[in-house]
Design goal:
about 100 residues, alpha+beta, Alpha-Beta Plaits, 2 helices
Length: about 100
């Protein structure tokens, strides 16, 4: 099943336009979009294949962490993960 997973990592400084463009390039292969210009957080929405919502979050977190590193972003903690499956049911995996 295909899942759209939205992830956010929060930190301690505002991010630049260039940093988020690098993240957008890194997540594009996963039909991803990136957010965070001028914010003290960066995020992405990715499309992944997984059997369950929990598995989709696990897969997406790996992709997101790798993409952030490729973009040169700080390894901030992921504070939000939400999934939407092919059946359009939203499942909030947590925040904090």
């Amino acid at each position: 099943m295909r899942w759209s997973v939205s992830l956010t990592a929060e930190g301690d400084r505002a991010l630049t336009h260039e940093e988020i463009l690098e993240l957008a390039d890194a997540v594009a292969v996963h039909q991803g979009i990136a957010t965070g210009i001028g914010a003290m957080a960066y995020g992405a929405q990715l499309v992944v294949e997984a059997s369950t919502s929990d598995e989709a979050v696990d897969v997406a977190m790996g992709v997101f962490t790798t993409a952030a590193a490729l973009a040169g972003l700080p390894p901030w903690p992921i504070t939000r993960a939400e999934t939407i499956g092919e059946d359009n049911e939203m499942d909030d995996e947590g925040s904090g």
